[in-house]
Design brief:
Layout: E1 3-7, E2 10-13, E3 18-25, E4 34-39, E5 46-51, E6 58-60, E7 68-73, E8 78-83, E9 92-98, E10 113-114, E11 118-123
Parallel strand pairs: 2-11
Antiparallel strand pairs: 1-3, 3-8, 4-5, 4-9, 5-6, 7-8, 9-10, 9-11
């Protein structure tokens, strides 16, 4: 059974930093693209960041570029999202996603496996 479990969310103030973690199990994702998406209340799920299996290729939404960093540790089956300079508009449930594909994508439909999400709330 494939499982992705996010952690690290919580309350933060504008300008703070948080690091989200996603533990993967049940399948080898060492050659798969992994990504983070988020969904704010009343809004559609949106792409945040994605990375290739090697970590050599990373992609970011314009809204987080320069502030967020996706990384992974294949030996530990973990993927991370470092979030710096948080803004109130970053408030959302953040989801880890894994794909059978090698190439990263910003399209939710390209990811077959999803975590349950972790809430990030940023106050001004």
């Amino acid at each position: 059974q494939v499982e992705l479990v996010e952690s690290g969310g919580g309350l933060a103030q504008a300008g703070d930093s948080l690091r989200l973690s996603c533990a993967t199990s049940g399948r080898t994702f060492s050659t798969s693209a992994l990504a983070w998406f988020r969904q704010a209340p009343g809004k559609e799920r949106e792409f945040v960041a994605a990375g290739s299996w090697s970590g050599s290729s990373t992609y970011y939404a314009d809204s987080v570029k320069g502030r967020f960093t996706i990384s992974r540790d294949n030996a530990k089956n973990m993927v991370y999202l470092r979030m710096n300079s948080l803004k109130p508009e970053d408030t959302a449930v953040y989801y880890c996603a894994a794909s059978r594909r090698v190439a990263p994508s910003s399209t939710p439909a390209d990811y077959e496996y999803w975590g349950q999400g972790t809430q990030v709330t940023v106050s001004s």
